[in-house]
Amino acid sequence: QVQLVESGGGLVQPGGSLRLSCATAGITFSIYAVGWYRQTPGKQREMVAVLGSDRSTNYVDSVKGRFTISRDNAENTVYLQMNFLKPEDTAVYYCNAVLGTIVYWGQGTQVTVSS
User: Which of 13, 88, 98, 100 has the smallest number of Cβ neighbours within 10 A?
Assistant: First the structure.
């Protein structure tokens, strides 16, 4: 059974940092592209960062220079290091794993940036 489980979300003050983790099981992790997306109420889910199996990366403009996506193929885990957080980063963050037309999603973790 395929599982993607996010962790690391929480409440943080503006300017602070969080590190999200997404542990996967049931897939050959190293051949999947992985990504982080976020969603706020009433809005569409948006791509935050993606990381290919070839380690190519892409980020939404609003997080460039602040967020870093990485993967540990030995641990079947993808990370999102988030620095200099802003209130507008508040959202539910989801990880996914993609191979061609196959897409798996995690259940999401809440990130709230507020003083």
Answer: 100
Q: How far apart are CA 61 and CA 38, in angstroms?
A: 14
CA distances 77 to 26, 65, 86, 115, Å, are 12, 22, 25, 30
Cα 23–Cα 25–Cα 31 angle in degrees, nearest 5? 90
Question: Rounded mean pLDDT of 16-25?
Answer: 98
What is d(CA 83, CA 56) in angstroms, rounded to the nearest whole number? 21
3-state secondary structure of 29: helix
90, 85, 86, 99: which is closest to 30 by C-alpha?
A: 99
pLDDT(6) > 90: yes
What was the pLDDT predicted at 49?
98
Q: Determine the 3-state secondary structure of 62 from DSSP.
A: helix
